[in-house]
């Protein structure tokens, strides 16, 4: 049994503009339950995880590795996995290699494998990295095959609208949103589809 150290939050709480308060009906829960649509007679089996990165796969406070260390790491990765990694920011490679949490990667991979859910990147990382580069980054942790797309970049801090736009073009039976911030998510989706992660995805 594995649970996520994540909580859904109510947008109706008066403190929600600055911080989140746990919704009364939602506590820690198994993420795999988010993808249970056995009652859906018309299900085609399409499941999406809309994934933020900072605050979900890694903490906001990162390790302090120098640019020289990141460049040396890039050389090592390129030698092991191919020169395509030279097209990626050495700093980004350093964050993925040193700062992405093992627990978060394990839970995300297990969720994808157990439910068949595919990852759509909603994080700001998509603004500086193409889908091909993101797959290379996720490939360092064995997750490349699960990454299928990125949400469009529409307006600053309107992540809910961006996810809604993606779903109009790519309909899904069920989906969940993993994020460490609110943005406009609750304006577009029920709170049981949004999982707020504290620091990162953890047990």
Please provide a written account of the structure.
The protein is α/β, with parallel strands linked by helices. It is built from six helices and six strands; from the N terminus they run ββαααβαβαβαβ. A six-stranded mixed beta sheet has the order 1-6-5-2-3-4, with helices on one face. Strand 5, helix 6 and strand 6 form a beta-alpha-beta unit. Helix 1 crosses helix 2. The radius of gyration is 17 Å and the shape is globular. Mean pLDDT is 80; it is low at 1-30 and 37-42.
Q: What is the 3D form?
A: globular
How far the N terminus sits from the C terminus, by CA atoms, comes to 10 Å
Q: From the helix content, strand content and strand pairing, which structural class follows? A: alpha/beta
Oligomeric organization of the protein chains: single chain
Strand order of the largest sheet: 1-6-5-2-3-4
* Sequence of secondary-structure elements: EEHHHEHEHEHE
Mean pLDDT: 80
Describe the sheet with the most strands.
6 strands, mixed
Radius of gyration: 17 Å
Total strands: the figure is 6
Number of helices: 6
Beta strand %: 5-15%
Helix content: 25-40%
Question: Uncertain segments of ≥5 residues (pLDDT<50)?
Answer: 1-30, 37-42
């Amino acid at each position: 049994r594995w649970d996520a150290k994540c909580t859904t939050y109510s947008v109706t709480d008066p403190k929600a503009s600055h911080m989140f308060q746990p919704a009364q009906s939602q506590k820690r829960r198994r993420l795999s339950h988010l993808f249970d649509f056995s009652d859906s007679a018309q299900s085609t089996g399409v499941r999406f995880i809309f994934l933020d990165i900072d605050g979900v796969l890694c903490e906001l406070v990162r390790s302090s590795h120098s640019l020289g260390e990141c460049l040396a790491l890039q050389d090592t990765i390129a030698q092991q996995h191919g020169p395509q990694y030279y097209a990626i920011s050495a700093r980004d490679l350093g964050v993925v290699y040193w700062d992405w949490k093992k627990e978060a990667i394990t839970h995300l991979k297990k969720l994808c494998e157990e439910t068949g859910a595919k990852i759509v990147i909603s994080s700001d990382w998509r603004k500086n990295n193409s889908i091909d580069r993101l797959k290379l980054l996720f490939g360092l942790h064995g997750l490349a095959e699960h990454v299928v797309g990125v949400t469009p970049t529409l307006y600053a801090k309107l992540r809910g609208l961006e996810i809604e736009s993606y779903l109009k073009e790519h309909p899904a039976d069920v989906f969940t949103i993993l994020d460490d911030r609110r943005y406009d998510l609750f304006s577009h989706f029920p709170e049981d589809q949004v999982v707020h992660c504290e620091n990162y995805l953890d047990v």
